[in-house]
Design brief:
The structure holds 2 protein chains of 2 kinds. Chain A is α/β, with parallel strands linked by helices. Chain A has a single domain, classed as Amidase signature (AS) domain (Amidase signature (AS) enzymes, Alpha-Beta Complex). Chain A is built from 15 helices and 11 strands. Chain A has helices at about 5-15, 20-35, 45-60, 105-110, 155-160, 175-185, 215-225, 270-285, 300-315, 335-345, 350-365, 370-390, 415-420, 425-430, 460-470; strands spanning about 40-45, 70-75, 115-120, 165-170, 185-190, 210-215, 255-260, 290-295, 395-400, 435-445, 445-455. In chain A, the strands form 2 sheets. Chain A has an 8-stranded mixed beta sheet, with helices on both faces. A 3-stranded mixed beta sheet of chain A has the order 1-3-2, sandwiched between helices. The longest helix of chain A is centred in the last third of the chain and has 21 residues, at about 370-390. Chain A is globular. The N and C termini of chain A lie close together (about 10 Å). Chain B is α+β, with helices and mostly antiparallel strands. Chain B folds into 3 domains: about 5-290, no CATH class; about 295-410, no CATH class; about 420-480, Arc Repressor Mutant, subunit A. Chain B is built from 16 helices and 15 strands. Chain B has helices at about 55-65, 165-180, 220-240, 265, 285-295, 300-310, 315-320, 325-335, 340-360, 370-380, 385-395, 405-410, 420-430, 435-440, 445-460, 470-480; strands at about 5-15, 75, 75-80, 90-95, 105-110, 115-125, 130, 140-145, 150-155, 190-200, 210-215, 245-250, 255-260, 275, 280. In chain B, helix 13 packs across helix 16 (about 470-480) and helix 15 (about 445-460) crosses helix 16. Chain B is elongated, with a radius of gyration of 30 Å. The chains are: A alpha/beta, B alpha+beta. At the A-B interface, helix 9 of A face loops of B.
Amino acid sequence: MHDLTVAELAQGLASGQFSSVEIAQAFLARINTLDEQFNSFITVDEDATLAAARLADERRSKGTADALTGIPIAHKDIFCTEGMRTSCGSKMLDNFIPPYDATVIARFNAVGAVTLGKTNMDEFAMGSSNESSYYGAVRNPWDVTRVPGGSSGGSAAAVAAMLAPAATGTDTGGSIRQPAALCGITGLKPTYGRVSRLGMIAFASSLDQGGPMARSALDCAMLLNAMAGHDPKDSTSSAMPVEDYCAQLNTPLQGLRIGLPKEYFGDGLEATTGQRVQNALDELQALGATLVEVSLPHSQLTVPTYYVIAPAEASTNLSRFDGVRYGHRCAAPVDLHDLYTRTREEGFGDEVKRRILVGTYALSAGYYDAYYKKAQQVRRLIKEDFMQCFDSVDLIAGPTTPGPAFALGEKSNDPVSMYLEDVYTLAVNLAGLPALSMPAGLVGGLPVGIQLIGPHFAESRLLNVAHQFQQHTDWHRHTPEGTTGAIK
Amino acid sequence: MAWESVIGLEVHLQLATQSKIFSGSPTTFGAEPNTQASAVDLAMPGMLPVLNEMAVKSAVKFGLGIGARICRRSVFDRKNYFYPDLPKGYQISQFEQPIVGKGTFDIPMDDGSVRTIGITRAHLEEDAGKSLHEDFHGQTGIDLNRAGTPLLEIVTDPDIRTAAEAVAYLKALHSLVTYLGISDGNMAEGSMRCDINISLRQVGSETMGTRAEIKNVNSFRFVEKAIHHEIERQTDILEDGGSIVQETRLYDSDKDETRSMRSKEVANDYRYFPEPDLLPVVIDEAYIQAVADELPELPQEKRQRFVAQYALSSYDAAVLADNRELADYFETVTAACGDAKIAANWVQVELLGQLNRGELALRDSPVSAEDLGGLIARILDNSISGKIAKQVFEGMWQGEGSADDVIEARGLKQVSDSTELEAMVDAVIADNRQQVEQYLAADEAKRKKLVGFFVGQVMKISKGQANPKIVNELLASKLV
């Protein structure tokens, strides 16, 4: 049962083939036996999961089941869950039990989805390898000596290892797409404002966006149907009406114009990975799409721009973690200054501290104009590049990452090389666009992804293209060896 | 050397909204600590601010009230600093693009003249919580009830020259914001808190001296004292050839002095940047017009109308128009009695006197405006004299009923019956032969003075109830 997609599980539930409780038990059992080698979950509460599954079964017996009723979903530990520890991958929140649900969680609860547990992540979502988690690194199910990507690495690994049929993630600079690519699954970062940020612990407020991670575009569409929508408690959430994201999946691709930014196929891209992406593009062409070369001339400014804006926002978003009201507090502070400095020194890991320092510097008097303000100006140029492209193409495609998963420890002492891992994904967040990554093939037995980028609110189009691709290929059906069939 | 002080004020005005500026928590004063603090106010992880539309409306009202530019687009910023009663580690404020731009404010001075003070800007922000240092045995308690209370920070140009002008400005501001209904103006509860920027320069100089900022002064009287003290302090330094240090100072009302805050507390780099959790506030013409249509008559207009319509002095008009309730009270009294001058006098002298003595607010006055008008009407129709009226007012204040009730019950009705009065006049003439002779021997001018003695005697006999007009007539006819 664990190798079924969300859509297949939903069908089985609807036809009475199995119950929600049986599904939950199957996945909990897999987590128990297999997750030791991946470390993809931080918190699992079997009793709560089974209780929710029972409620879902009751709901189904009353005839009021929704598409996702009874489907277990793993949530990135950045989404606050009422009564369940929400750590954000940090020692700072190791003891934090929220008295509220994030809007995303509340929406899943409302349709009767079952929370399977909280997944591991880079501390405060800061990282591209999941090595910065207080709860230890996550390992890639395709090769446990390699990283799963980050920051939603726990979610990606859990779905790839079939410990969960689907998961939520958040994406500030590629944190859904990059781990999805490195773990061989499908992940969607929606348009900024499409999914509520309320209760999603903030990293960089103007860039953060929650989204689905699953084994197919169809599954992502089903999850997005539950997640998306206006939230009056998030001022940046969009009032645009929500579509049924499953409705356009079967639209043929004839006449679709796909732009290929020449900057995304240059020197930084590993040759074999580029080849897999090209193969996938050929497939899309065969399905009726036209490929057009386009240019995003400010691409080379993306990494520096992002690494000013994101740390700047993060540096103040993380000020609330001061040991006064919740979370970690140092032992026996002698005075206020001691309380602050020791609490934060002990509570935050190195990467978080690095970004707080960078961000604080970028906002400081005398540097603000040169860094933060300049970065915001460049951000506008980056966005305009995309807008210009979308005048002539329907979507943009390219690699999600420069190459497949790298080895644990390979980049953890070289922040700049780690930051370059996100070179193809950061611009999307700066421009607020929706983008999707799906498996495009294998490189040396490791998955790589193709990224599709759409205009604002074009989630349906991205899901449609991905679904059509997946109807005619089976890269998304490949699973890491050694886990498939480990329990049957 | 002659020094001139240059003063600018920053007033933090608490807006009287039902809920906080970025959360749904109530803003009631004096609740049990932390009972009015939601997850947003506590800055729990993942919580987001949502702007209270009433706070925006209040700011627009204020802007319109002083004829300032209402900015069509304003932006919230984060002001970053760590403090235990600042839960997020930043205050949401407005920095580069405030909601209210330049304006001017006319303030009535005690001598009846009007001073115009420039308003630099006014911006919206949230209040912090409170740190409580008592009762916690060496620890600090944090009360976040006040955290997130909406504030409008109103900044003047450096147009103020004296402590008296500063106080007049604050009084006029208090009057305006209570008229507009955007603040309760309760200074004791911290609804209006004032920062004073003050520097000295030689009279005639156009350049600014180095300023000191005195933080958080909470009453008109303390503002006056703090400014006096600071002018003295700076004068002493400059006269001795020293120079002023730009710094933040605290006014200690117990010692009546200002003292420097530790530099650690002021050496903050606030790292302002636009608040990414909130959208810019965009205000269109139609909205501004709709708010303008709701505005009441404002103190300045009312003062001018009182002078024109009721022929009041500008001083009386300023006192009566100072607060909306008092102005309404005055106009009701006038309508009931028909004489604005006497009404103005009674309201200012007797009514305000009684309220002050009893430490009562106008709304708690035991005498209604209609009843006071009724009392004045009895003076005007000669039922009682002005002197007796004060006794009647006393009775009304004690709850003895309307003017007519008190006059009836206390038997204070003026004696106008001429036979009764004639007997009294005859008795006075008979008992004061010497004065009568003096009177008869005097010329016209002296007689006018001397007749007062006889009137006084009649009043004494009548216990003040004799109608003075008739008494005068009788005396004139008998003293020949």
